[in-house]
Design brief:
CATH superfamily of the largest domain: Aminohydrolase, N-terminal nucleophile (Ntn) domain
Helix content: 25-40%
Number of strands: 23
CATH architecture of the largest domain: 4-Layer Sandwich
Largest sheet: 7 strands, antiparallel
Strand order of the largest sheet: 3-2-4-1-10-9-11
Structural class: alpha+beta
Number of helices: 17
Shape: globular
Length: 480
């Protein structure tokens, strides 16, 4: 594990989520091969590190490293991960820095043998639990809340593995979807609010758990259903069985999974993501019409909504920004001049499309505002006469404590500026956001089944102080 960084580009004006997880039980045949394919489908959920743990029921193998799935694994690496059970992980760090010690799956000792764990989400009580475990003599190898979860399970007073998971689920608080590999078994479980997604798929005798259903298409599996809030799925020689371990609370599906994080071909809470985003664009055109010649998307996350805006407005949809698909997320920007060129490195305008045109530019969100302003100025420099920005989400005004890297309200431009002030800051001719009511209409889900805390401040759980949240919450955590 050489710890090399992923290559790419880091925008300071986009949202990042923590991880993608997968779990595979084949009964016979190599499970790591399917986990590897599934991780490619989930690569958008984390580009800092990737890893797979596999088992034949007696021994466990793990390979993980910093970088993209294609950088971490090749045919030889996959062949060195035998066995009919596997879990996998791709990571973006929201608790614990981007370093090899925090890459997953994490492997810890347990009463049932070596236990590998992969986690998506954030615990809100991780610092308290970690401090208690350290007082009991536990030594931590990482600074992630994921290792806290693993140690709570490993040190549970209950005797069986499933009882230990139930014990842990009763103690950990916040957002989590987890796959676990131990003792010839793959397990998957989800918090009682179902904040982060976890789906179950099947292909003949093979069962697969994944953060998104798009992973099933890559593995020839068929989507069966979402894992229920507070539910445990067990995959072993007896097949698949489910247990309801926590009393389900108010479902609180993260709206930004629908708006931005999930792939367009994923099914979330029973609905296709692309079609939901297209409805967002249609409603956005109704709420904030514009007089313009063409509709553009900020690729790729704004594309579905831009298509919907064009549908509803009658303004032609055009391709006016070309995305460099070989620039990933963390391009190293050593000086200001290079940082200023960062957006152009990733997006290039088509002057022939833009020159002399009034443009509607559709994007999914504005977080800090810096990148949006650069794109607007880029379009003007390429000849656009007017740029009307339309955002297919409501303004983000509150921090997220459930696995998105906005644990401080001070990072969010809409927390301190009005829509008009943001419009002026990004130099747009007009600016319109989708309303909260319009978002709920587009998702075709009851509002009380959604977590919209980053939009309205109504958190489904207790939340920590900002000093006990975020990427560095466990770095320098109290000892003893």
């Amino acid at each position: 594990m050489n710890g090399r960084p992923a290559a790419g580009f880091a925008s300071d004006d986009v949202l990042h989520e923590e991880c993608g997880v997968v779990g595979v039980y084949t009964g016979i045949g190599p499970a790591a091969t399917l986990a590897h394919l599934a991780l490619y489908a989930l690569q958008h959920r984390g580009q800092e590190s990737a890893g797979i743990a596999s088992s034949d029921g007696a021994r466990t193998w793990v390979h993980k490293d910093m970088g993209l799935v294609s950088q971490v694994f090749d045919g030889g690496r996959i062949a060195a991960l035998p066995g009919h059970l596997a879990i996998g992980h791709v990571r973006y760090s929201t608790m614990g820095s981007a370093r090899i010690e925090n890459a997953q799956p994490l492997l810890v000792a347990s009463p049932w043998g070596p236990m590998a764990l992969a986690h998506n989400g954030n615990l809100i009580n991780a610092p308290v639990l970690r401090a208690a475990l350290e007082r009991e003599g536990v030594t931590f190898q990482s600074t992630t809340d994921s290792e806290v979860i693993a140690q709570v399970i490993a040190r549970a007073p209950e005797g069986t593995l499933e009882d230990a998971v139930a014990y842990a689920m009763g103690r950990i608080e916040g957002a989590y979807t987890i796959t676990l590999l131990v003792a010839g078994t793959v397990l998957g479980f989800r918090d009682a609010h179902a904040i982060r997604p976890l789906a179950l798929g099947r292909a003949d005798r093979t069962w697969i758990l994944a953060s998104e259903s798009c992973a099933f298409d890559h593995t020839a599996a068929t989507y069966v259903r979402d894992v229920a809030p507070g539910e445990l799925i067990v995959l072993d020689a007896g097949g698949m069985r489910a247990q309801q371990l926590l009393t389900p609370r108010r479902e609180a599906h993260c709206v930004f999974e629908h708006i931005y994080f999930a792939r367009p071909d994923t099914i979330l809470a029973g609905g296709n993501v692309h079609l939901g985003r297209r409805r967002m664009g249609q409603i956005l055109a109704r709420e904030h019409p514009a007089r313009a010649d063409i509709v553009l998307a900020v690729p790729d996350s704004g594309t579905s909504a831009a298509m919907g805006f064009a549908d509803a407005s009658g303004i032609p949809f055009e391709v006016g920004l070309i995305k460099n698909r070989y620039i990933g997320r963390t391009f190293i920007q050593p000086d200001q001049a290079t940082r200023d060129l960062g957006v152009r490195l990733k997006l290039n305008p088509l002057r022939e499309v833009l020159e002399g045109r009034r443009v509607v530019l559709v994007d999914d969100s504005i977080v800090r505002g810096t990148t949006s302003g650069k794109i607007v100025r880029m379009l003007r420099a390429a000849g656009a006469t007017e740029v009307h920005v339309r955002i297919s989400s409501p303004p983000i005004r509150f921090p997220c404590f459930y696995g998105i890297d906005t644990s401080s309200r001070g990072e969010l431009v809409a927390a301190s500026k009005s829509v008009e002030e943001i419009r002026d800051m990004i130099a747009a001719d007009s600016l319109g956001y989708l309303s909260q009511r319009g978002l709920v209409e587009a998702l075709q889900l009851p509002r009380d089944r959604l977590c919209m805390a980053c939009l309205d401040g109504a958190y489904p759980t207790a939340v920590p102080e900002e000093t006990l949240a975020g990427r560095h919450a466990l770095e320098g955590a109290p000892r003893g």
